[in-house]
């Protein structure tokens, strides 16, 4: 008859061929392949210091008749280490969820049992529909000072382990990041970017439980972020962007009163509005420079402006030279 | 007195709610700082789990989202009147414990500041109830309960409990006032006929 046998990595395993005597002539196979006689002690199969690759189906056949006398499925694995448990409320005040996983795989099936105690009351943790290592708890009370204690026990055929978390209602509140972050240039404003976003869809009641936001932005060419904290609203205009530089922008959210900041949102990129380079004809129109500003690179002003009455030939050369300067300047700008 | 559902009353309610929310936020921030100072000065440990103490209002509530506006106001008012008396008692005990000179130390001043904010909040809640033509209930029996010969350690634990629950209440109150503010002009804070007892 076939059954499953669990053994620890590194163990020495002895398999008997069912009810066959020790001195019976038998053949052992592993996953259909004959096992060398050097692993046999009489009719017993000896596997020393087993490893994960030795998991498989082991069968024992009577020597002459090839009748199957014994079959087992060997699963080599490890007892569970202390599991990693986290609990979080991203949908306050509805409830919270707890997720867990093992730091290293055991290679054999594990079962998990979770208990959630609030004061003296045991609470139900409903299994997640999609994720097998997560369950959800509904808040029965709000604004409680009594802590929650969550204990997770993981068990497999080779042992068990457990861990506990104790926390209060407020400390685990952490919204999901803001959604639909959009950044757009503002027409005719070379230093502005308009950023907007939405509350995370998992936050059930932003009107009664408003979120505040943290926006960070930097030009791609720099490492240092600038930050803005916003106590209300889901939009902000950046007014100190470097002209013509591409920016990376992210937003995070937090309940106005309790808990911790969300992770950063997906990053969006945007470049402030820039004036279209003018088409150059026989006479170049030199763009006016702004007053000295460290935030934008502008082509240096030429000392000579072409006269309209200038000779065509020399004027054209001067126009082409000036045009070349302007184009070279824009070329550097967009590197 | 304006009718509870008149536009001017609704505006006044909105204004009181907004200011109340800001006051609750400031109060919470100060109470959290006070709690840290209290724990340190009294030689306590915040991991100590203090069970419910008689007379200290508990912020914990079930079916919070189903409460009517009036219920929210009445529960808040009862709680903050109790906190006002409890904080005054703590301040007095502080003075007795440390002597008049030391009572003005930072902790004493912080306690007094929070007491002032709690008193201001009580006033806010009373005004909101006046707007509902309910008038605030009388203050009989809202003083601090007589402390039956508490030891010094028991007083410290009670003080810890007071501040912990006040910090929770400050969060709850901001939420309660936002719920009230959500009700537009013309809405009554009273429960519907189906809800009223």
Automatic annotation (TrEMBL), chain A:
Keyword vocabulary terms for this entry: Cell membrane, Disulfide bond, Glycoprotein, GPI-anchor, Immunoglobulin domain, Lipoprotein, Membrane, Receptor, Repeat, Signal
Gene (name only): Cntfr
A single GO molecular function term of this UniProt record: ciliary neurotrophic factor receptor activity
Main localisation: membrane
Protein name: Ciliary neurotrophic factor receptor subunit alpha
Domain Ig-like: 10-60
SMART domains linked to this entry: FN3 (SM00060), IGc2 (SM00408)
CC terms in the record's Gene Ontology section: ciliary neurotrophic factor receptor complex; CNTFR-CLCF1 complex; external side of plasma membrane
Fibronectin type-III domain mapped to chain residues: 177-277
InterPro entries according to UniProt: FN3_dom, FN3_sf, Hematopoietin_rcpt_L_F3_CS, Ig-like_dom, Ig-like_dom_sf, Ig-like_fold, Ig_sub2, Type-I_Cytokine_Rcpt
Family the entry assigns: Belongs to the type I cytokine receptor family. Type 3 subfamily.
Membrane topology designation: Lipid-anchor; GPI-anchor
GO biological process per UniProt: positive regulation of cell population proliferation
Organism whose genome encodes this protein: Aegotheles bennettii
Annotated localization: Cell membrane
Coiled coil regions, renumbered to chain: none
UniProtKB/TrEMBL annotation, chain B:
GO biological process, any: astrocyte activation
Hydrolase in keyword set: no
Chief localization: cytoplasm
Keyword line: Cytoplasm, Developmental protein, Differentiation, Growth factor, Neurogenesis
Superkingdom of source: Eukaryota
Any Pfam family matching the protein: CNTF
Subcellular location: Cytoplasm
UniProt key word Cytoplasm: yes
InterPro entries: 4_helix_cytokine-like_core, Ciliary_neurotrophic_fac_CNTF
Gene Ontology terms, MF aspect: ciliary neurotrophic factor receptor binding; cytokine activity; growth factor activity
Gene Ontology cellular component terms for the protein in this record: axon; cytoplasm; extracellular space
Similarity field: Belongs to the CNTF family.
Chain's role: CNTF is a survival factor for various neuronal cell types. Seems to prevent the degeneration of motor axons after axotomy.
Name of the molecule in the record: Ciliary neurotrophic factor
């Amino acid at each position: 008859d076939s059954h499953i046998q669990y053994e620890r990595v590194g163990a020495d395993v002895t398999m008997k061929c069912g009810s066959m005597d020790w001195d019976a002539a038998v053949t052992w196979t592993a996953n259909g392949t004959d096992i060398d006689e050097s692993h046999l002690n009489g009719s017993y199969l000896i596997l020393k210091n087993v490893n994960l690759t030795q998991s498989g189906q082991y069968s024992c056949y009577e020597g002459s008749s090839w009748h199957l006398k014994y079959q087992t499925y060997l699963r080599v694995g490890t007892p569970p280490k202390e599991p990693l448990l986290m609990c979080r409320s991203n949908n306050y005040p509805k409830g919270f969820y707890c997720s867990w996983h093992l730091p290293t795989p055991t290679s054999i099936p594990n079962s998990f049992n979770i208990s959630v105690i609030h004061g003296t009351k045991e609470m139900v943790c409903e299994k997640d529909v999609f994720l097998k290592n997560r369950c959800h708890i509904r808040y029965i009370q709000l604004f409680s000072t009594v802590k929650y204690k969550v204990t997770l026990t993981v068990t497999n055929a080779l042992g068990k382990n457990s861990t506990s978390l104790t926390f209060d209602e407020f400390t685990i509140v952490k919204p999901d990041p803001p959604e639909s972050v959009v950044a757009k240039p503002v027409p005719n404003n070379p230093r502005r970017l308009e950023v907007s976003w939405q509350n995370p869809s998992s936050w059930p009641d932003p009107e009664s439980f408003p979120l505040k936001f943290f926006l960070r932005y930097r030009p791609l060419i720099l490492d240092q972020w600038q930050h803005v904290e916003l106590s209300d609203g889901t939009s902000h205009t950046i007014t100190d962007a470097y002209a013509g530089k591409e920016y990376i922008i992210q937003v995070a959210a937090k309940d106005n009163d309790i808990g911790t900041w969300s992770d950063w949102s997906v990053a969006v990129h945007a470049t402030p509005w820039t004036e279209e380079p003018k088409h150059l004809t026989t006479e170049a129109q030199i763009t006016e420079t702004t007053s000295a500003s460290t935030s934008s690179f502008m082509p240096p002003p030429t000392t000579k402006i072409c006269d309209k009455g200038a000779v065509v030939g020399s004027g054209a050369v001067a126009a082409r030279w000036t045009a070349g300067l302007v184009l070279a300047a824009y070329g550097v700008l967009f590197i | 007195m304006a009718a509870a559902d008149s536009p001017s009353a609704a505006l006044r309610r909105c204004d009181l709610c907004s200011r109340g929310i800001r006051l609750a936020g400031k109060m919470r921030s100060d109470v959290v700082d006070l709690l840290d100072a209290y724990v340190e000065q009294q030689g306590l440990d915040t991991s100590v789990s203090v069970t419910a103490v008689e007379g200290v209002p508990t912020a914990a509530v079930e079916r919070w989202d189903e409460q009517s506006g009036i219920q929210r106001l009445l529960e808040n008012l009862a709680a903050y009147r109790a906190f006002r008396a409890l904080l005054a008692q703590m301040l007095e005990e502080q003075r007795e414990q440390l002597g008049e000179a030391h009572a003005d130390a930072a902790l004493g001043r912080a306690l007094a500041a929070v007491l002032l904010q709690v008193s201001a909040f009580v006033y806010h809640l009373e005004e909101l109830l006046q707007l509902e033509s309910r008038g605030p209930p009388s203050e009989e029996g809202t003083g601090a309960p007589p402390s039956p010969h508490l030891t010094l350690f028991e007083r410290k634990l009670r003080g810890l409990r007071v501040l912990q629950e006040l910090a929770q209440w400050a969060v709850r109150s901001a939420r309660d006032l936002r719920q009230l503010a959500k009700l537009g002009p013309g809405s009554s804070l009273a429960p519907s006929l189906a809800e009223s007892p």
